[in-house]
Amino acid sequence: MKEKIISKASEMFLKLGFKSITMDDIAGEMCISKKTIYKYFCNKEVLIQESTELVHKQVHELIDSVVAKNYNAIQENFEIRKMFGELFNSSLDNSPIYQLKKHYPEIYQRVLEQEVNQCEHCFRQNITKGIQEGLYRNDLDVETYVKFYYILIFHINENTSSEREAKRIELEALEYHTRAMATEKGITELNKQLSNLNIINNQ
């Protein structure tokens, strides 16, 4: 039952907001008593903490599944972006990360600490792969570009309250990051991915 509560709460928090969802809402959605929830979680903050840990695990499992498909490095980044868009397809116009930072700063800091090493590892793998494929320049200082992109992405999510605006800026950041590293071959692949994205968006 505990795992079911965490799973449902995670889904509701991401769709409707960490602040607005109450224990009553979760109990009603699951057709259980609020007392049952409190049997496993002494308060909402503990439930949010465990829910964010589940989302963290799910996100990185999905990233691993995208990487396992062995796309080229540039397409891989676009596929991961698409996956994030589907996972965090909130009906709110508020970024889940922005909400977490604003209303539950201590939990946000713990989430951030968890993300640092894993995200930097993902970025490092992608850049190394792109260099080997001839899509990124071989004279790059990999660690510097890892930090550049990490700072860009987390700054956007920390400081942009609108989900729609955050997604728009993230795409700009991905293009900016890729162009800064790309060879001529990489620019061709980037333009292909941007063109495919425009076709999908206009359908």
Name the descriptors.
203 residues, mainly alpha, Tetracycline Repressor, domain 2, elongated
Please tell me about this protein's structure.
- Keywords: DNA-binding.
- This is TetR/AcrR family transcriptional regulator.
- Residues 22-41 bind DNA.
- InterPro entries: Homeodomain-like_sf, HTH-type_Tx_Regulator, HTH_TetR, Tet_transcr_reg_TetR-rel_C_sf.
- It holds the Pfam family TetR_N.
- The protein has helices spanning 2-16, 23-30, 34-40, 44-68, 73-87, 96-103, 105-132, 142-159, 163-181, 184-201.
- It starts with a helix and ends with a helix.
- With 203 residues, the chain is mainly α.
- Helices cover 79% and strands 0% of the residues.
- The chain contains ten helices and no strands.
- It has one domain (50-201): Orthogonal Bundle (Tetracycline Repressor, domain 2), CATH 1.10.357.10.
